[in-house]
Structures are given as C-alpha cells and as structure tokens.
Amino acid sequence: MSKSLSARLSIMMFLNYVIWGAWYVTLGTYLTATLKFSGTEAGAVFGTTALACMISPFFVGLIADRFFATEKVLAALHLIGAVFLYAVAQVTSFGAVYALLLLHCLCYFPTIALTNSLTLRQVKNSGSEFPLIRVFATIGWIAIGQTIGRMGIETSATPFLLAAGASVVMAVYSLTLPHTPPAGKGQPVTVSSLLGLDALAMLKRPSFLVFVVASVLACIPLTFYFSFTNAFLNEVGVVNAAGKMTLGQVSEVVMMLLMPVIFRRASVKVILMLGLLAWSVRYGLLAYGNLGAGMWMFYVAILLHGICYDFFFMTGQLYTDQEAPAHLRGTAQGLITFLTYGVGMFIGSLLSGGAVDYFTTTVGTTVTRNWNGFWMSSAFGAFVILLLITVFFRSNAKIQTDGSPMVAGEQ
Fold first, then answer.
1. What are phi and psi of 146, to 5 degrees?
2. How far is CA 80 from CA 100, 147, 160, in A?
3. Quick one: CA torsion of 97, 103, 107, 113, rounded to 10 degrees?
4. pTM of the shown model
5. Residue 54: which H helix or E strand, with range?
6. For domain 3-181+192-392, which CATH number applies: 1.20.1250.20, 3.40.220.10, 1.10.390.10, 3.30.420.10?
7. What pLDDT sits at residue 65?
8. CB of 98 within 8 A of CB of 111?
9. Dihedral angle over CA of 115, 118, 121, 125, nearest 10
C-alpha cells in the first residue's frame, strides 16, 4: 500500500473516532451529575448505542455491499448525524435526550463497520497493515479526550457540540476517500440478504459460533466500564478523570503496534483468553483502588485497556474478516457489530444501569454507591466468559500477517 493511501485511511479513522470519543466517555457524568438522571435512566441512554448497532449495520452494510459506494454512504451518515448531535446539546429531559441520541447513533454506528470494511478492501495484507491504520482511531480518541479534560467540560453539553463539528468535517472528508464500489453489485437481492441473514451462515462453524457467543457476553461487563468509569472516578475525587482515562488509549496504541508480532506468535484463542483475563483483573483493580496508596490501581486498570480492547475486539474484527467470503465481508463486519456493540452492549447497558442503582443507597438527600460491589460483579462476569473460551473455543487459527491463508486447525 502506498504511503499516501495509508495516510488517507488513517485520517479517516482518526476523524471517525473523534466523533464518538467526544461524548461517549463523559456521557455518564453529564447524565448523572448535571441532568440528575438515575442509574437506570443513564444506562438506558447508553443503550441507544447498542440499539443502533442492532438496527442499522446490516442494512447499511448491505447498501454499501450492493448498491452505493462506501465513501458516499459514510458522507451521508455523518452529515445527518451532525444535526442530531447538535440537537442533543439543546435538550435536558430524559425522553428528548434518549430519542435524539438514538437517532444520532443510528447514523454513526454503521460507520464503524463501513470504515473497517473500506480499509480492509484497500489493504493488501490485513494482518500487518490494518493495525497500523486502525491505531489512528485510538489516537483520535486520545486527542479529543485530552481536549475535553483540559477544557474542564466533562459535566457540560459542550462535548456534543464538538462531536457535531467533527461529524461535519468527516462528512466532507469522506467524499475524498478512495472510491470503494459495492463488492456485491449485480448479485440478486433475496429476502435473506435484505435482512442480513447471508452472514449468519458463518455461525455454522463451531469455533466461530463460540467466538460470537463469547463476544456478545464479553460486551456485558465491558459496558460497565465504558458507561460508569468516568462517573466513578469523578465521584471518588480523581482530578481530570477524562484526561487520565486517555492513558487507556495510549496503551491501546502501543498494543496495536505490537499486534502484528503477537499475531505471528499466538493463536486467536490464546489472544482472546489473555484479553478476557485482563478485563477481569482491571475490574478488580477498580474495585479496590483509592485516591491514597491505591491510586496506582486506577492507573493500572486504565492502562490495561490496550490488552482488554485490542486482544479481544480488534482480533475479533480480523478473525471475522478472514472467516468471511470476500463478497460478504461488509455484511460480516455488520454481523459482528450487531452482535457485540448491539446485542451485547444493549444487555450490558441495561444491567450496568440497574447495577448502579442496586449498589446505591439513598438516605434523605445523601446518595452512597457501593462501587466495590459494582466492579467485582463485572470482574466475575469477565472471568466466566474466559472459562467459556478456554473450554469451548477449539480452533488453532492464527491471524495471518504475510498474506497466506489462515491456519485452520479447528477440532
């Protein structure tokens, strides 16, 4: 791949994740501290991201796979999404926030699968080239997180306005991306393809089915972290929590750069197991950390993000791409997005919000949360999923970095 093409795709990833990172990390703090939403209401609002992932990726993936060029679909989605982001910043009631954020998410979350599939269509060697491009998504998340932390706007609606501006920029930039015509153009459209069922045939492979089930379950405890870590750190008195949380993305950058080496040395199963173990450890650290002698636990928990995310989710994206037939790669990315960011995180959003309320005691006007219990329930969940992968995932497949076929070895 040429350096200019790599740079263009890297900028695409950077901008796409600036939009999400601008509002997602501080959303829980804004909803609970400023708008005074309950944990259940905040969890429901976080669930809009998951609902969007369940509703839209299959259909948009199908459109990009069969009817319209990916770059044009991206431009349209981001321009419409910018309008809804601006509107979210203007309202304060639960119903209005929920509805407008859901409409934005319906536009935004298909772009995760579309930017992945566009990149994978352009690269020659996904195992070695994709991580070096995808890392700029994380850099974008870090950049906007540091900006918001330094501006001190974690409890305000300003992050939505920043996201809206970035979305407009991304809409314009999308039109400059490499022309990526629909790979399945001209193929007959069936009921199964309209519903995104073509990619479900991949679930007939035992190890891929176990991987998908584990991915869905892993997103449940994952949502506990994304939904309430910023609110937790602010509540216990951590200064510039949003800025400190970007250390997780710094570690993600480091791990992404190391992923090609890791792919050559470890199987998909081993990588997934290490990722889930890191999730369990990180929640234990959050449960027992404090602002005094235990502050190091908060830092380590945040820094584990590189292993937690890259070892499970980026590995899963590449594993899915290698398992999918060429003409279904966009739909396959939509499938995994639907099941993880959709089904898994929707369940996780509801459970995490309910868990916050369950571990909350209110006496008069005093609200006390048992964060230790909240985080340990997450640690236990991640460990159970680790056991599932250990016992039932029987593939010795590796992510290839040299362009050769994937090593099979399913038992």
1. -65, -40
2. 12, 24, 14
3. 80
4. 0.73
5. helix 39-55
6. 1.20.1250.20
7. 66
8. no
9. -30
